[in-house]
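FORM 7B: Structural annotation worksheet

SECTION A. Query
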Amino acid sequence: MLNQLGAVPLAADIPWLACASRQKRWLVGVSGGADSVALLHLLVAAGFRNLVVCHLDHGLRGRASTEDAKFVRRLAEKLGLACEVGRADVKARMARCGESMETAARNARHDFFADCARKHRCRRVLLAHHSDDQAETVLWNLLRGSHGLKGMRQEQSLLTAAGVALELSRPLLHVRRSELVAWLTSRGYRWREDASNAQPVALRNRLRNEALPLLAEISQRDAAQSLARGAADAEDLAELEAWALEQAQVLDPQGRLHLPALRILPVALQRMALRRFLLDHRVPSLDRALIERALSLLDVKNPASVNLPGGGKLRRQAGRLRVDL
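SECTION B. Predicted structure
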């Protein structure tokens, strides 16, 4: 169903728009929903013209998915922008790869963006994730035991399964969805409403429609805003952590962890160094228990290796730690 949307000036509250190059080409992920349509209109209003609108039909909503694709194509044409529309069979991917619906859809989008990046010789992808999306991400990461208040980053490098390095940017990450809707409404812009967002089928739907409103009711606070603010604070701490580890020089020239340098650090920084080291080696399913097992390798009286998820090992040898996958 198409909705009429949008009021207040918004572009001034989005620093990314003032800083980003208008000469460079940008790929823009546009689903047809309010957030991505708002991003596209904001970009055009700010003078961005070298844009490629990228829309992937996930094949999950039948005729509605087809209408979404038609809407995005017409919008791109109206704005005078190049447009790429792809289609993926997410259900088939779920069965083939054993992925959840959300994971399969996300990986399909990354594959699609990789194809668009190759075709248009552009690795820069703009995504319309906003503050409410960030709150959902933080809450879910907390529930599944992730390290700290982990959310999405405004700037992120991503290597796709096809080996294409993408540079993801999220200009709206600190903007509330309600602000985007108000902005669209004030200008009479239209978008597509995904009726499935109100259904309690996907995990994010339940966090958005059930968990966050309940947390707000219990705390008498804007739970989404609090979680998003916590993620921003955690990002500042992550920068401090990276600086501290760089000063400590815990990596040798071959990229291995140098145990003498690691041992003189506070235990909290030792954990951080091990976590970053394992993340850099793409070790999956990192949790506190695994970091504690890795920490035991600093003591030479303990066994010299730790099993890693996926069949690899973290080994201690000649005063260094290395990952064997």
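SECTION C. Observations
Residues 1-8 have pLDDT under 50 and may be disordered. The chain has two domains: 2-211, 249-324.

SECTION D. Sign-off
Analyst initials: ____
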